[in-house]
Write a structure and sequence with these properties.
The chain is an alpha/beta fold. It has helices at 2-23, 134-154; strands spanning 69-73, 76-79, 84-86, 89-92, 100-101, 106-107, 114-115, 125-127, 160-161, 172-173, 176-180, 184-186, 190-193, 200-204, 208-210, 216-219, 227-231, 235-237, 242-249, 253-255, 260-267, 270-273, 277-279. The chain has one domain (1-281).
Length: 281
């Protein structure tokens, strides 16, 4: 009964947030507000809480699944210095291990994987030119990463369209599907607020930029593993900032000096690090 009341309470809060955003909208298309009239929908509801259904990343223990990786990219993963990757694997495909730089890889005798002081055990490093079954497993994992991106990008009937004209500074974000046809910037701290089973999907048509020394913070039990940032452009997490959630980027992801992240970074090109702490949710 308590759980049902909590869910009902959060539903009322989300509905109120949508109505408030609609009231603040600047035109009939719902710019800066909620979308109220939808055509065909592809936005299944979350069966466990508020917001849309989560994006499926697969098993966290199967190397053929994107969900087993903290960092997964196609063209390269670079590290200027330091960095600690924990809670999952690091993978690169179709590029070879020579495009994983700054990790001082130590090849296992099997040549199926490598290890690195920067990738916390028992997690491992995988590249497309390692011994079988790694190449085929990585091909499947990268395809799964691309499928996750397509799923996130294809959700329709957003709860919020062009909220804040792409400026999220100071916002508190309720569970839901958000869409922007612009860059999204976070120049001051932003809070993602909701329950432990609630879901957020952020669809961003251009770039995502988190300013230096700023924070994406969670409240109310919200979990990074249920927060999905689908970004058609590049992602930059500036120096000494902190980010929460799973990034699904069509291009590159850059973490500048001492930035930290609680989530996963999946890039369809390059991931660039510089003395960062990245922890799986």
């Amino acid at each position: 009964m308590r759980q049902s009341l909590d869910l009902l309470s959060r539903t009322v809060l989300l509905s109120s947030a949508v109505l408030l955003a609609a009231a603040c909208g600047s035109d009939s298309n719902g710019v800066d507000g909620a979308v109220t009239g939808a055509d065909a929908m592809h936005n299944p509801p979350n069966p466990m809480g508020l917001g849309p259904a989560p994006i499926d990343l697969g098993s966290p223990t199967d190397v053929a699944s994107s969900g087993s990786f903290v960092l997964l990219a196609k063209t390269g993963i670079t590290n200027v210095t330091g960095s600690s990757i924990s809670g999952g694997n690091l993978g690169l495909s179709p590029a070879a291990a020579s495009f994983i730089t700054g990790f001082s890889l130590v090849a296992d005798a099997s040549n199926v994987f490598s290890t690195s002081a920067s990738v916390v055990s028992p997690a491992k490093v995988y590249a497309s030119n390692f011994a079988s079954p790694t190449p085929s497993s990585l091909t499947t994992a990268v395809l799964a990463m691309e499928t996750a991106y397509t799923d996130a990008a294809g959700r329709t009937n957003p709860d919020f369209l062009n909220l804040g004209s792409g400026n999220l500074g100071g916002q508190t974000l309720a569970p839901g599907l958000y869409k922007w046809g612009t860059n999204v910037t976070i120049p001051t701290d932003v809070t993602i607020a909701g329950g432990a089973n609630d879901v957020w999907i952020f669809q961003i048509s251009n770039d995502l930029d988190l300013s230096s020394a700023k924070q994406v913070t969670l409240s109310g039990g919200a979990q990074a593993r249920h927060i999905f940032w689908q970004v058609a452009g590049g992602v930059t997490i500036h120096a000494s900032s902190h980010f929460e959630g799973i990034i699904l980027s069509k291009t590159a992801i850059t973490l500048q000096t001492t930035a930290s992240m609680h989530g996963r970074a999946f890039a369809q090109s390059l991931i660039a690090l510089d003395n960062n702490a990245v922890t799986a949710p």
